[in-house]
Amino acid sequence: MTDQPRLPEMAESESELEFESTLRPNRLDDFIGQEKVRKQLDLLLRAAEIQNRTPDHILLAGPPGLGKTTLAMIVAEETGQALRLTSGPALQNAADLAAVLSSMVPGEVLFIDEIHRMARTAEEMLYLAMEDFRIDIMVGKGAGAQSVPLELSPFTVVGATTRSGLLPAPLRDRFGFTAHLEFYQDEELERVLTRTATLLELVSEPGSLAEIASRSRGTPRIANRLLRRVRDYALVHGTDISHEAVAAALQLYDVDERGLDRLDRAVLDTLIRRFRGGPVGVRTLAVTVGEEPDTVEAVVEPFLVRIGMMARTQQGRIATPEAYEHLSIPLPPL
Ligand SMILES: Nc1ncnc2c1ncn2[C@@H]1O[C@H](COP(=O)(O)OP(=O)(O)OP(=O)(O)O)[C@@H](O)[C@H]1O
């Protein structure tokens, strides 16, 4: 995936993914934060249960690492149904989707990550499948090709997207419920970290998890990853999760006291020094720092805007006085 949040120099390794999956809460009650979304989902699932039908299709929108995959898994767990995982980039044509849909068991939850990256032909097939639980399959080739209807058992699509604006309206309309996931408050991230520390049997100094939480960009995935790096440090230096271990490990990984990493600082630095504080388009910024535009758009920009260091204007992105101050660059004269 191109738009994953990351620690600098840290690829999303197998062990990283395994680590994440062991930390996923599997019931709605154990899912921390996102109060409103939890209540909305709870209602939707309970109503479906009372009516003995599959829940409406669900779209989860929000930046990476806020818990979309986790929520999809929770929907399957709470409804007692099987879960099938796929992603937009894996559905490059209608046949890819037909293969998935035709092999599903009744009631199954189909999770489509990065649903905005699905091929158009697959998208069109999905409209029909979501609405009528039916697809048309092309059999044969050329003049002899025939469209054969295939009835499907009812199922629930859980779509996840970091870019809901890119979803075509007909697809968006097929979802009975869209949940907009918000960045987490520091106090909520501290609860995520306390849960993780308990699962990993870590001993932490009072306040040290709060310190990690405040540098985690409002994102549980990042909080857990930072804790893992601090745990490494503590292990090697024979300490607990102490304030000293937090400070030293995060410094080593270039995560500053506001949670900005190297890429965030590079983007701000470029915006200020190269483009005189803006306005400049986000794609131009991405190209200038040598990063994927998707990453800058989905990961860097939302965070910098949220902490007030970048602002969006009609002409492009601008650096705020807070950004100058953070990078210790004098503000230009008015
Ligand atoms: N509310 C939460 N409570 C506890 N842990 C959470 C919560 N949200 C996310 N996590 C943890 O953060 C990690 C990332 O979550 P998840 O993979 O669900 O994010 P995502 O939004 O699907 O990200 P992406 O879109 O990049 O795949 C997982 O280890 C998960 O357990």
TrEMBL record:
<comment type="subunit">
    <text>Homohexamer. Forms an RuvA(8)-RuvB(12)-Holliday junction (HJ) complex. HJ DNA is sandwiched between 2 RuvA tetramers; dsDNA enters through RuvA and exits via RuvB. An RuvB hexamer assembles on each DNA strand where it exits the tetramer. Each RuvB hexamer is contacted by two RuvA subunits (via domain III) on 2 adjacent RuvB subunits; this complex drives branch migration. In the full resolvosome a probable DNA-RuvA(4)-RuvB(12)-RuvC(2) complex forms which resolves the HJ.</text>
</comment>
<dbReference type="InterPro" id="IPR027417">
    <property type="entry name" value="P-loop_NTPase"/>
</dbReference>
<protein>
    <recommendedName>
        <fullName>Holliday junction branch migration complex subunit RuvB</fullName>
        <ecNumber>3.6.4.-</ecNumber>
    </recommendedName>
</protein>
<keyword id="KW-0067">ATP-binding</keyword>
<dbReference type="GO" id="GO:0006310">
    <property type="term" value="P:DNA recombination"/>
</dbReference>
<feature type="binding site">
    <location>
        <position position="68"/>
    </location>
    <ligand>
        <name>ATP</name>
    </ligand>
</feature>
<feature type="binding site">
    <location>
        <position position="70"/>
    </location>
    <ligand>
        <name>ATP</name>
    </ligand>
</feature>
<dbReference type="GO" id="GO:0000400">
    <property type="term" value="F:four-way junction DNA binding"/>
</dbReference>
<keyword id="KW-0233">DNA recombination</keyword>
<feature type="binding site">
    <location>
        <position position="65"/>
    </location>
    <ligand>
        <name>ATP</name>
    </ligand>
</feature>
<dbReference type="Pfam" id="PF05496">
    <property type="entry name" value="RuvB_N"/>
</dbReference>
<dbReference type="Pfam" id="PF05491">
    <property type="entry name" value="WHD_RuvB"/>
</dbReference>
<dbReference type="InterPro" id="IPR036388">
    <property type="entry name" value="WH-like_DNA-bd_sf"/>
</dbReference>
<keyword id="KW-0547">Nucleotide-binding</keyword>
<dbReference type="InterPro" id="IPR036390">
    <property type="entry name" value="WH_DNA-bd_sf"/>
</dbReference>
<dbReference type="InterPro" id="IPR008823">
    <property type="entry name" value="RuvB_wg_C"/>
</dbReference>
<feature type="region of interest" description="Large ATPase domain (RuvB-L)">
    <location>
        <begin position="4"/>
        <end position="184"/>
    </location>
</feature>
<feature type="region of interest" description="Head domain (RuvB-H)">
    <location>
        <begin position="257"/>
        <end position="334"/>
    </location>
</feature>
<feature type="binding site">
    <location>
        <position position="184"/>
    </location>
    <ligand>
        <name>ATP</name>
    </ligand>
</feature>
<dbReference type="GO" id="GO:0005737">
    <property type="term" value="C:cytoplasm"/>
</dbReference>
<dbReference type="GO" id="GO:0016787">
    <property type="term" value="F:hydrolase activity"/>
</dbReference>
<keyword id="KW-0238">DNA-binding</keyword>
<feature type="binding site">
    <location>
        <position position="317"/>
    </location>
    <ligand>
        <name>DNA</name>
    </ligand>
</feature>
<keyword id="KW-0234">DNA repair</keyword>
<feature type="binding site">
    <location>
        <position position="69"/>
    </location>
    <ligand>
        <name>Mg(2+)</name>
    </ligand>
</feature>
<dbReference type="InterPro" id="IPR008824">
    <property type="entry name" value="RuvB-like_N"/>
</dbReference>
<dbReference type="GO" id="GO:0006281">
    <property type="term" value="P:DNA repair"/>
</dbReference>
<feature type="binding site">
    <location>
        <position position="221"/>
    </location>
    <ligand>
        <name>ATP</name>
    </ligand>
</feature>
<feature type="binding site">
    <location>
        <position position="174"/>
    </location>
    <ligand>
        <name>ATP</name>
    </ligand>
</feature>
<feature type="domain" description="AAA+ ATPase">
    <location>
        <begin position="54"/>
        <end position="187"/>
    </location>
</feature>
<keyword id="KW-0378">Hydrolase</keyword>
<dbReference type="InterPro" id="IPR003593">
    <property type="entry name" value="AAA+_ATPase"/>
</dbReference>
<feature type="binding site">
    <location>
        <position position="24"/>
    </location>
    <ligand>
        <name>ATP</name>
    </ligand>
</feature>
<dbReference type="InterPro" id="IPR041445">
    <property type="entry name" value="AAA_lid_4"/>
</dbReference>
<feature type="binding site">
    <location>
        <begin position="131"/>
        <end position="133"/>
    </location>
    <ligand>
        <name>ATP</name>
    </ligand>
</feature>
<dbReference type="GO" id="GO:0005524">
    <property type="term" value="F:ATP binding"/>
</dbReference>
<dbReference type="GO" id="GO:0048476">
    <property type="term" value="C:Holliday junction resolvase complex"/>
</dbReference>
<comment type="function">
    <text>The RuvA-RuvB-RuvC complex processes Holliday junction (HJ) DNA during genetic recombination and DNA repair, while the RuvA-RuvB complex plays an important role in the rescue of blocked DNA replication forks via replication fork reversal (RFR). RuvA specifically binds to HJ cruciform DNA, conferring on it an open structure. The RuvB hexamer acts as an ATP-dependent pump, pulling dsDNA into and through the RuvAB complex. RuvB forms 2 homohexamers on either side of HJ DNA bound by 1 or 2 RuvA tetramers; 4 subunits per hexamer contact DNA at a time.</text>
</comment>
<feature type="binding site">
    <location>
        <position position="23"/>
    </location>
    <ligand>
        <name>ATP</name>
    </ligand>
</feature>
<dbReference type="InterPro" id="IPR004605">
    <property type="entry name" value="DNA_helicase_Holl-junc_RuvB"/>
</dbReference>
<keyword id="KW-0963">Cytoplasm</keyword>
<keyword id="KW-0347">Helicase</keyword>
